[in-house]
Structure formats: structure tokens, C-alpha cells
Amino acid sequence: MMRFDPFREIEELTQRMDRAFGGAMNGQAARLAPPIDIHEDEQGLELTLDLPGVSPDDIQIEAENNTLTVQGQRRYDRKEGRTAHRVERAYGTFVRTFSVPAKYDLTKVEASFDHGTLTLHVPRSEAAQKRSIQIRTGGQQLSAPKTVDAEQGDQTEQSQE
């Protein structure tokens, strides 16, 4: 199930308006806002950004205070003696900022860049990992440990094999 993201809706509307009015509004060039996919599994988050035409040297990634920021620049190669009849692709700088819940460890972010796609892996923090905890009653250990999810604090029975 996809979560409602009002900022994504606003960004998509802005991009549609830019395209509808010839890619420029008030004399400014169309904004570069790379699309992103965000997936989550038991290991953590995976953020994938499409950055065609952007050099890895022009990308900066910062993680601070539960915020992950990706910024960069797609350069327009303007050559002398050549006339541009149409320029629809967005050029310039971009910044995408994401709030990351505390259950993820921003000190261990890994980034890879392949064929214009930037992939960021943000692992779950050690404190948020599920683990089995043995329960002792009256000095004896129960046969089935309880699994405690640090995120939700609920308990589910799990057999140990």
C-alpha cells in the first residue's frame, strides 16, 4: 500500500505546470527534481533516485539529525556556434531531503551509482532489530521464546528450532 505524500503531489503539479507553460515560469528554467522510489524491508530502507546525465562527482549526500539530503547538479553543455531549438530536459541544481525515522541508522548509509541510478541503503539500527528473548519463570526456561519488536513493542510467539 502506498502512503499519501502531499509534497509529492505538489511537486508533480509543479512539474505539470512547468511543462504546460513551456518549461519556464517567470523567466526561470524548469526545476530539476529527480524522481525517487523508497522501499522498506526487514534490513532497512532503500532509496532509488533517477539521475540521468548527472556525474557521480556532482552528487553530495548528507545525513544529520534524522534527515537524509541528496543534492547535485546536472550541467548543460552549451557549445559555441550551435543553436538550441528546444530544451525540455531540466538542468541545474537539485536538492531532495527526506526525514528518516530514528529506527534507521544514518551513520551506516551506503550509496551506489550505476547507469544514472543512485541507490542508497539505510540499515535499521541495532536497537530496532527484532530479537528473541528467553522468558524464565520460577527458575525454569520456557520452551518457546517470545519475539519482541523494538519498533512496536508487541510480542508474538515463535518456536525455536
Automatic annotation (TrEMBL):
Which positions fall inside the SHSP domain?
A: 27-138
**Where, if anywhere, are coiled coils annotated?**
none
Q: Which residues fall in a compositionally biased region of kind Polar residues?
A: 131-144
Q: Where is this region: Disordered?
A: 129-161
Assigned protein family: Belongs to the small heat shock protein (HSP20) family.
Q: Which named protein is this?
A: Hsp20/alpha crystallin family protein
